[in-house]
Records
---
Amino acid sequence: MEKKEKLKDKASIRFKMLKRKYAEMLNNALKESKVDKQLIPFLKKVNSLDKFFTASSCAGRIILLETTTSESKKESKFIFKKHGKVSFEEIFPKIRDFDAKDKYLWFKQEPFILHIGTDTLENAKKIITAMHKAGIKRGGIMVAQEGKYIIELLGTQSLSLLVKYKDFQICENCFRKQLQIANKKLERNYRRLKLFEKEFLKVS
Amino acid sequence: MEKKEKLKDKASIRFKMLKRKYAEMLNNALKESKVDKQLIPFLKKVNSLDKFFTASSCAGRIILLETTTSESKKESKFIFKKHGKVSFEEIFPKIRDFDAKDKYLWFKQEPFILHIGTDTLENAKKIITAMHKAGIKRGGIMVAQEGKYIIELLGTQSLSLLVKYKDFQICENCFRKQLQIANKKLERNYRRLKLFEKEFLKVS
C-alpha cells in the first residue's frame, strides 16, 4: 500500500473512533437531560450524517455566575441558568440573597457556541461556508488533523456585567433594564442559530 | 508542469499578492495613526516574516458605543474609545451628556482580536499551537485556501452593558464598579496578548 493511502486509512479510522465517542457522549448527556432542549433536534440531525458529529454545544443562555475575584473558571459556580427568556421575579431574588462577601456575582447573557467535527478540510470548509451564509462572524477551524477537524461557531449577542460584590449590589432599576436587553439579545441569538441550522443542512 | 505544481505556483502567487496588499494597508494605517500603539511592534515583527502577515487587529479597548435599538453595525458610532486604562472623570461626562432619546448607549470592554495570515495549513497550525500554548481559548482558521489562510484569535476578557436609553441612565455608583472591573479585565487581556506574542515568535 502506498504511503498516501496508509495515511488516508489512518485518518478514516481516527474519524470513525471520534464519531463513535462523541455519539456516546451525546447519548449519555441526553439520558441525563444535560442537553438544551431546543438544540436536540439539530444535534441529532448532525450526528445522523456520515461525515459530521457534534461536540459540546450550547444554544445560548442567561446566567448568574459566582466567581472568585481572580475569576478562575475552576472555582466558578452557576447561581442561575436558563436557556430562554427570564423574568425579573425569577432571577432578582437570587441576586438579593447571594452572599458576596469575597465573591463576584456576574450577570451574563451568553451567545450560542457550537462545535462540529468532520473528517476532511473540504468538509470543514463547508461548515465555514454555512457559517458565513448565516451571517455568523465569529468562528473557525480549531483543530486541523486529517480525520479530525473541529469547527467552533460563536454567536455575537452578549451582555456581561458585575451585579454584586461586597457592599455593591446593582440597583433594581438598572438590573431590570439589563435583563430586558438580555432577553431581547437572546431572542436574536436564537434566530441566528436557526439560520445556521438551515444553511448547514443545505451544504452537509 | 504537473497539475500539483501548477496549483502550488498559483497558491504562492496568491500569498505574495496578499502579503503585499496587507503590508500596504498596515503602512497606510500607521501613517494615519490608526493602529494601537502597543500592537505596533508585534504587527511589524509579524509582517517582517516571510510566511506571515497581519490583517485588521486590535489590542483590546474600552468604549462607549452609540447604536440604534436594532444595533445595526453600520449605524453605530463611537462616543468614547481608548486602548488603555480609563478614569471615571474622563468617561462619565460622556454618558451624562449623551442624548439617548432614540439611541442605545453601550459601555464595553472588548478583548483583543488578531487576524494573522499565512500560506499553508501547516503554518496555520503553528499559529493555533501558539494560541493554545498562550491559553487563548477562542479562535481558529477562518479562511482556508492554499495561499490564503487567515487565523482569528480572540481574547475572552470582556464586559458589556447598556448605560443609557430614553429615561434610563446607569447610576454613578454602579458605573464606577463596572469601570473598575473593565480596567482590571483590560489589564488581564493585555497580559494574555503578550503571552501569545511570545509563543507566536517561538513557532514562526
---
Amino acid sequence: MPRKPSFDRDDLINRARDVFWSRGWAGTSLKDLEQTLKLKPGSFYAAFGSKDALYELALEKYAEDGRARLEALASEVGALEALKAHPKRILDSDANAAKACMLAKTYLELHTHDHPLADRADTLLSGMETLFEDLFHRAQTDGDIAKDRDPKRLARRYQSDLLGMRVTAERSKSDALAIAEEIADGLSAL
Amino acid sequence: MPRKPSFDRDDLINRARDVFWSRGWAGTSLKDLEQTLKLKPGSFYAAFGSKDALYELALEKYAEDGRARLEALASEVGALEALKAHPKRILDSDANAAKACMLAKTYLELHTHDHPLADRADTLLSGMETLFEDLFHRAQTDGDIAKDRDPKRLARRYQSDLLGMRVTAERSKSDALAIAEEIADGLSAL
C-alpha cells in the first residue's frame, strides 16, 4: 500500500493536538480520538500506535508551530517588536483550541505521575525559553534594549509572565489582553 | 453514634487536598482517596458523599488557608510588604503538596469539561484577586504606592504573574525564586 500523503497525516495530528490541548491527557479517551480523526481502532493503531505516541507527535507539532510563527514574526518586524507582539497574537488567534499553553498544561497534568510526556513538555518549554533568550539577545544587538540586561533572565521572566497570562486567558480574554499590553509596555521600557 | 470531632475531619480534608492538588482530579481515584484517608468505601461515603463533594471541600479549604495566611502576614508587616513577601513564601512552604496553584490547576483541568468544580475554582480565584486588590488599596492608603496606580489593575497583573511563577516553580524552584524576587522588586518601584 502506498504511504498516505503527509499532509493528511499532519491534518490528523493537528486535530488530535486540539483535542489533547483542550481536554487534557486524562480527559481524552481513545474513543474520543477515533471519533475526532474518523479512524477505526485498527487504522488508528496502524497510523499512530498508541494515544501516547500520538500525544507526543501533537506536542511536538504544537511547539514547532509556535516556534516557527515567532521566528517568522521576528524576521518581519525585528526581535523586540516580535517579543512585544507575541502575547497579544497568542490571545487573538482563533485557531487555538485553548488559551493556556499546551506544554504547560501537559507538564502540570503529568509530571506528578512521572509520565514521560511531562519530560517531553519540559524539554520543549526549555526550547521556547532558549528562543526567547535568542530574541532578547538579538534585540540587544539591534540596540533596542539596554546592554546591561541579561537575556537569560529576561527570557525566564517573559516565559513565566506568558504562562500566567495564558492561564488568566482561560478565565477572561479581556483581562488577558490588558496583561498582554502591560507585558509589551514592560519590554518597551527595557 | 456521636459526631466525629471536627479536627479529624479537617485532617482528612487536608490529606485529600494534597492528593487532589498534586495528582489532579482525573488522576485521583476513589481508591487513592480511600487509601490516603484510611477509610473503607462505606465510611468514605458516609463522611463525604462523593469524590467531587470532597474535592470541593478541599478546594475551599485550600483557598481559605491561603487567604488567612496572606491576611495574617499583612496585619503583621503591612499590605505592601505582605504582597512583596507572598510569592517567595509560597515557594518556600514545605507544606505545599505542589507548587502550582490548586485553583488554577483545577480550572485548567476541568473547565473544558464544563465541570462544576471549574466554576468553583474560578470564583475562588476571583476572591483571591479581590484580596490582592484590597491589599494594593491599603498599600496606597498607607502611602506605600503611588496614588495614580489602579489597585484593580495591579491585582490582576499580580495574580497573573503569581500563576506564571507557580507554573515555573513546578519545573525549577531556583528559576521561580528569581522570579519571586523580581515580582517583589517590581512592587517596590510602584
